[in-house]
Design brief:
Chain lengths: 474, 528
């Protein structure tokens, strides 16, 4: 049996998080709006209206293009993609065709492979239709929401890589403030072109297109299924036909939507209602100057500069706000970056997750986090107490020191009193003390536990341990 | 003030408090009642428009008369004057609007059944600016369906407009109602549109002035698109002065139209009076003939234009020479004859796309018949809603823009368009061999033809626009100015064409000529 290699290319639509739509001043975030409330004559294609380009949409697209290392065209054009559908009010979509905004560039995967980008262009979104009770309803709210269409070269070699590409792209568009990147809201929509070829072959097999696999967890099984199907067809001596497929969520299988013979001719031509997009050097330099350090660059720097393990560096760079938070805390603290990373990963992220907080909601500021770490360093609280302290600081929006005092969370600072307490515990348990001295060293922990219970956790366990060891062994 | 007053005269009188906007309006409404004839409506199947005309002969310029709205506007102007406020440069001027431009709260039909009862939710920029300048909108006037025609006959709203100089003749098109209304004294100013001559040709047929500005000089926002890269909005008036006055108000950048030029607007009225001394005015032999495909033989046929029109142009050159203009003969426009074929292709590709939105989903006509699914709803709605002309254009537009033909037709037509543009660049080049300020030529190859004479021959109808379409391809401004009457008493017209954004030169030449030829034509007496 021949060994096959999958060849995968993705076509991804990214919804931009601009305030207004791409060609009119309606809100570009109609997610929660009632149907047909975020509309105007322009985005619903009334007779006589004209599109006027939203410059911010271009800027965001430029940001993504530059981050991917793509080449931005000095002059690019809009074109009309003509087709009929009730959710497309003008009967054409304003898109870019023969001269896109940017070409080339690549997105690196974790394994270092670079997935090349073929093109990146701007276009407008269509509305939504739904069928209910035998009638069809159209919601035009989404019409004219700006999209970037990004097409990769067929460089992806496994469903896993495809999923990773999408994950990384989502991370990047959020990082760049280009898109909110909520996949469940359709901010990132993905079509996959899949073919297989005998391993080692350089030619491309006939491909099929899987439409609308918009969740990462869906992309993987859909591509995997299609690869297996194609291999089976070829193994049975058949030929792959250029179908368009869609994922059936109920049955969790791919279905054929249409064959090549019914492929639409969109009769593209240049949009006469819009001027070409001219991106001069000055504009490009301006955007480039404001481009942040990219997530994978920052991940590398976190390892090198702060000596973080790869895992920590990766987690801390999943989101730009998180990475910023971490670095601000490191700066405010001045101590071990790894200690900061531990608190952020183990406690801050958990807190945010459990309480569904946004970065704006977070009251445990980097300065407060640094203060907590200093309290631990100074022995005022035990490091385990941080776990309890962090939610309290969040809840009360107070300085950690204030919370520690109010809650009586400070560790026992009176060594003499602690010594006396330990001595009392050892005396009260002669049998256990004898067993320990006879070699059952594991009982030390039991003694520590007794002392901690008496102090209601305020003693420093290391200190308790040292005292007990001295009492039992000395 | 009676209905023959010009926009300039009305505005001056109203601004000075010598006439009330309300009285001016009533005089024009009275005139409309006298000469308009039958009120137009959607033609029922099998109904003969000619019979409708014979029952109530008249000009039939209007689709929608907005009498009450106009009265409110006129009264508001009068209140402003009474309060000592500036009522605007067009105070109290009753205007008509070609029914391809939107006016908020008023139906916009585009002369088509498919927009039946569509009420526009906003006002076109050009119209909004005229209203802000004090103009009073009388109503929406008839046109070829979606502007697709040169006679007015293709409108779904019948009877179609007639030529006020001879009611058996067409007023031209597609701004048919605009030119007919202005010529007949039903408002001295109308807003028209020109994609391949649709302002200038009806102006020529009706003996009035029609100005097609530079592409982008006047916002297209609110103009129901035909061929977006060629469409322009401009005034139709009885005098050159009124055209200058109207353009002054309409021109300029618009935040709703990205293709509207940001270039400053000159003071046209001041420029207009500067005379033609020293202006280089060209004549081209290529504008004294037209070339078209003979439908019977398929051969290219060349004909000279009407001799009386040619004589009028040559006489215009003499008059301008007498005013010390430099006349430059034999200016070549080698690609003029390809203007119509290139226009066929470009305009249809854009038109087919622009007409996609009329699908019965959102507004306008939707088939009343039961349908299986929305595809059938589309087919029936568009099949019943569009008349013949849009259908012909959609079919051809779809064909020539199809992936397999696009190179052969559309891309090639765009190249021809560039060549035509270069013809003009060359003759207007200040360092070139001709260095023209303006080009002078005929507007149309013939005077107004009879109703029914050309209609039905879609191809021949469009070759009538051969001398006009070049300015649309090139984007340059052009104006049609009356040149007296021919032996049959029909208006003749000459055309001036100027370089990009040089409407000032256009108006200088046109105004000097208008004065030299004996002033504007009167409102035809035959109507009374």
């Amino acid at each position: 049996m021949t060994a096959y290699e999958p060849v995968i290319g993705l076509e991804i639509h990214i919804q931009l998080n601009t305030k207004s739509k791409i060609f009119c001043s309606c809100s570009a975030d109609p997610w929660e709006a009632e149907p047909n409330t975020q509309i105007c004559p322009v985005c619903t294609g009334h007779p006589g209206v004209l599109p006027v380009l939203n410059r911010v949409a271009v800027e965001k697209a430029l940001r993504l293009a530059l981050a991917l290392g793509a080449e931005v065209a000095e002059v690019s054009y809009f074109a009309r993609k003509n087709y009929f559908y009730p959710d497309l009010p003008k009967g054409y979509q304003i898109s870019q065709y023969d001269q896109p905004l940017a070409t080339g560039g690549a997105l690196p995967l974790e394994n270092g492979r670079r997935i090349r980008i073929r093109r990146l262009h701007l276009e407008e979104d269509a509305g939504k239709t739904k069928r209910e009770g035998g009638r069809r309803f159209v919601d035009f709210n989404r019409c004219g929401v700006p999209l970037i269409e990004l097409v990769t070269e067929p460089d992806i070699r496994s469903p896993e890589e495809a999923a990773q590409f999408l994950t990384r792209l989502r991370q990047l568009v959020r990082w760049l403030d280009v898109s909110l990147g909520h996949m469940e809201r359709g901010h990132i929509r993905c079509d996959a072109n899949v073919s297989v070829r005998p391993k080692g072959s350089q030619s491309l097999g006939e491909k099929t297109e899987i439409k609308n696999v918009n969740l990462i967890d869906l992309l993987r099984p859909a591509i995997e299924q299609e690869i297996q199907r194609q291999i089976q067809v070829l193994e049975a001596g058949g030929q792959i036909e250029a179908w368009t497929l869609e994922w059936d969520e109920h049955q969790r299988v791919l279905r054929k939507m249409r064959g090549k013979e019914t492929e639409a001719d969109y009769r593209y031509f240049r949009e006469p209602d819009l001027l070409p997009i001219v991106v001069d050097r000055a504009w490009l330099e301006e955007v480039a100057a404001e481009l942040p350090e990219l997530p994978w660059e920052r991940e590398k720097r976190f390892q090198e500069e702060y000596g973080l393990p790869e895992y920590d560096a990766r987690v801390l760079t999943t989101e730009r706000a998180l990475a910023d938070y971490f670095e601000a805390a490191v700066k405010a603290y001045g101590g071990s970056p790894k200690a900061v990373a531990n608190l952020v990963i183990n406690h801050i992220l958990r807190l945010m997750n459990e309480q569904r907080l946004t970065w704006d909601d977070l009251r445990v500021t980097p300065a407060r986090l640094a203060a907590i770490l200093r309290l631990v360093d100074q022995g005022v609280i035990h490091k385990n107490a941080a776990k309890k302290l962090i939610p309290l600081v969040q809840e009360r929006d107070q300085e950690p020191k204030v919370v520690v005092e109010a809650e009586g969370m400070a560790q026992m600072q009176d060594t003499a009193a602690l010594e006396a307490l330990c001595a009392r515990i050892v005396e009260a348990h002669p049998e256990e003390a004898a067993k320990y001295r006879a070699g059952k060293k594991g009982l030390l922990g039991w003694f520590v536990g007794q002392v901690m219970r008496e102090t209601r956790g305020k003693a420093n366990p290391q200190e308790v341990q040292a005292i007990l060891r001295r009492l039992l062994e000395g | 003030m009676d209905y023959t007053a010009t926009a300039w005269d009305i505005a001056q009188a109203v601004r000075a408090g010598k006439a009330s906007a309300r009285d001016v309006l009533e005089a024009v409404l009275e005139r409309i009642r006298a000469v308009e004839g039958a009120s137009v409506r959607l033609l029922a199947p099998g109904e003969d428009p000619e019979a409708l005309h014979r029952q109530h002969p008249g000009v039939h310029a209007f689709i929608t008369l907005t009498e009450e709205r106009a009265r409110r506007q006129a009264e508001a102007i009068d209140r402003r004057v009474a309060a000592g406020e500036d009522p605007g440069p067009l105070a109290g001027v009753p205007i008509t609007v070609k029914d391809i431009l939107t006016v908020e709260g008023v139906r916009a039909t585009a002369g088509s059944r498919i927009l039946y009862e569509y009420i526009a939710p906003y006002t076109a920029t050009a119209v909004a600016r005229l209203e802000a300048a004090g103009a009073v909108v009388l109503g929406k006037v008839n046109l070829d369906e979606f502007t697709f025609g040169s006679s007015g006959e293709s409108t779904a709203y019948q009877p179609a407009p007639r030529n006020p100089w001879d009611l058996d003749r067409v007023p031209g098109g597609s701004s048919s109602g605009s030119a007919a209304a202005v010529a007949a004294g039903m408002g001295p100013l109308s807003v028209g549109t020109d994609t391949a001559g649709s302002i200038r040709q009806p102006a020529a047929f009706c003996g009035v002035v029609g100005l097609k500005p530079t592409y982008g000089r006047v916002s297209r926002y609110g103009l129901i698109a035909f061929a977006s890269s060629l469409d322009t909005v401009g005034p139709i008036t009885r005098t050159v002065t009124d055209a200058a006055l109207a353009l002054q108000v309409m021109a300029g950048p618009d935040r709703y139209d990205a293709t509207a030029a940001t270039r400053p607007v000159p003071d046209y009225l001041a420029e207009m009076h500067k005379g033609v001394r020293g202006l280089r005015i060209g004549l081209s032999p290529d504008m004294f003939r037209i070339t078209y495909v003979d439908q019977a033989t398929g051969e290219l046929v060349e004909t000279r234009i009407d001799p009386e029109i040619e004589a009028a142009v040559r006489k215009a050159a003499d008059l301008l020479a007498d005013l010390d203009a430099d006349i430059v003969d034999d200016v070549p426009l080698p690609h003029l004859e390809y203007g119509i074929p290139a226009y066929f292709v470009i305009s249809r590709v854009e038109a087919a796309s622009n007409l996609h939105r009329y699908d019965g989903v959102k507004y306008g006509y939707r088939t009343p018949e039961p349908v299986e699914d929305f595809w059938e709803m589309y087919r029936k709605t568009r099949g019943q809603g569009f008349g013949l002309q849009p259908k012909v254009r959609i079919l051809m537009g779809m064909y020539v823009s199809a992936a397999q033909y696009s190179q052969r037709y559309y891309e090639r037509a765009l190249r021809v368009r560039t060549l035509i543009r270069r013809d003009f660049e060359r003759i207007f080049d200040p360092e070139g061999p001709y260095r023209l300020d303006v080009l002078l030529g005929p507007t149309t190859p013939t005077p107004a033809f009879r109703v029914g004479e050309v209609y039905g021959d879609t191809v021949l109808m469009q070759y009538m626009d051969q001398l006009l379409v070049a300015a649309n391809h090139a984007g340059v401004p052009a104006i049609a100015v009356p040149a007296g009457l021919n032996r049959q008493g029909l208006p003749l017209s000459v055309q001036f064409i100027a370089p990009d954004f040089r409407e000032d030169l256009l108006l200088r030449a046109a105004y000097a000529y208008e004065q030299a030829v004996g002033g504007p034509l009167p409102v035809p007496s035959r109507l009374d």
